[in-house]
């Protein structure tokens, strides 16, 4: 229970750091939580210990985003390619997701977090699917931060699924193919109705997208840090947000100062 988000007394909120402009915070932050294995290896520990510690980093990041006024956090927890890992590691991760969800659901409810799981959930263990469905329903009416956990998520699979759903509607005569536009395509994605991420953070220094949110990241600002995910903390998040606030987003337009 000591590691749980739930506490009987209201927890201390993190004040917004002085250097951050609350009016220019990203509405939606996405994060590729990478480097758990390397974190463990550097300590002579089994890789899975990095995943366990990674959960603490995720809880920390969710609280900080919520307290600082970020509207949505989307975290990449398990990709469609992560099934290629050794069976033991995959099994550990599935069991970890179950344990964490069970342990944290009350705290998430209390803190008004609205949790969703994005991805193809059917291949997940049945117990995990039940916990996911329960957490989704129990937090659906919450008005706090939106927390998307990408689980068995792949950007390409999501795009193919959207195309298939539109094609099925067209084949049924419910949709004129000529009327398909970006809005109607986006409405078939797992993120339907949500704003695109403004900022993508990737930890552990890798400079790639790894099949994450291929559509939604079209205009996200990218922040890559060498920090390994289990070490990700307030200082690392602040660096990412300050980096974001120093960017000039042009969306294909021109810099008015030039
Ligand atoms: C990210 O850490 C967690 C998942 C992909 C589930 P990794 O397990 O990829 O850690 P590294 O990249 O091997 O260090
Ligand atoms: C991306 O990390 C997936 C998650 C963080 C869940 P990986 O470690 O799987 O990505 P690659 O293999 O280095 O591209
Ligand atoms: Mg990795």
Cofactors and ligands: 3-methylbut-3-enyl trihydrogen diphosphate, magnesium ion
Report helical residue fraction: 25-40%
Strand line-up across the major sheet: 3-4-2-1-5-6
Beta-sheet strand percentage?
Answer: 5-15%
Query: What's the pLDDT, averaged over the residues?
Result: 96
Low-confidence stretches: none
How far from one another are the termini? 56 Å
Structural class: alpha/beta
CATH architecture of one domain: 3-Layer(aba) Sandwich
- The CATH topology of one domain corresponds to Undecaprenyl pyrophosphate synthetase
CATH class of one domain: Alpha Beta
What is the gyration radius calculated from CA atoms?
Answer: 19 Å
Strand tally is 6
- Number of helices, where a helix is a run of at least 4 consecutive DSSP H or I residues: 7
| Helix-strand sequence | EHHEHEHEHHEEH
Question: For this structure, what is the CATH homologous superfamily of one domain?
Answer: Decaprenyl diphosphate synthase-like
Instruction: Outline the biggest β-sheet.
Output: 6 strands, parallel
Q: What characteristic shape results from the CA principal axes? A: globular
List keywords for this structure.
binds magnesium ion, 6-stranded parallel sheet, 7 helices, 258 residues, Undecaprenyl pyrophosphate synthetase, 13% strand
Descriptive account of the structure:
The termini are far apart. The chain contains 7 helices and 6 strands; from the N terminus they run βααβαβαβααββα. The longest helix has 24 residues, at 87-110. With 258 residues, the protein is α/β, with parallel strands linked by helices. The structure holds 3-methylbut-3-enyl trihydrogen diphosphate (2 copies) and magnesium ion.
């Amino acid at each position: 229970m000591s590691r749980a988000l739930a506490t009987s007394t209201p927890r201390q909120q993190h004040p917004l750091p002085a250097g951050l402009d609350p009016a220019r915070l990203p509405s939606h932050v996405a994060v590729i939580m990478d480097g758990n294995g390397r974190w463990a290896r550097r300590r002579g520990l089994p890789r899975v210990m990095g995943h366990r510690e990674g959960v603490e980093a995720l809880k920390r990041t969710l609280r900080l985003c919520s307290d600082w006024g970020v509207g949505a956090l989307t975290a990449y927890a398990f990709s469609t390619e992560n099934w290629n890992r050794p069976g033991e590691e995959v099994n550990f991760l599935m069991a970890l997701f179950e344990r964490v969800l069970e342990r944290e659901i009350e705290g998430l409810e209390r803190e008004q977090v609205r949790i969703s799981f994005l991805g193809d959930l059917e291949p997940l263990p049945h117990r995990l699917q039940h916990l996911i469905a329960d957490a989704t329903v129990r937090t659906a009416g919450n008005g706090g931060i939106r927390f998307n956990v990408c689980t068995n998520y792949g950007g390409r699979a999501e795009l193919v699924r959207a195309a298939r759903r539109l094609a099925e509607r067209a084949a049924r005569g419910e949709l004129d193919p000529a009327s398909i536009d970006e809005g109607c395509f986006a409405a078939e994605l797992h993120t339907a109705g949500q704003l695109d991420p403004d900022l993508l953070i990737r930890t552990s220094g890798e400079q790639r997208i790894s099949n994450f949110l291929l559509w939604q990241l079209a205009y996200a600002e990218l922040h890559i840090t060498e920090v390994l995910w289990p070490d990700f903390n307030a200082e690392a998040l602040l660096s990412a947000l300050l980096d974001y606030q120093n960017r000039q987003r042009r969306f294909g337009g021109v810099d008015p100062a030039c």
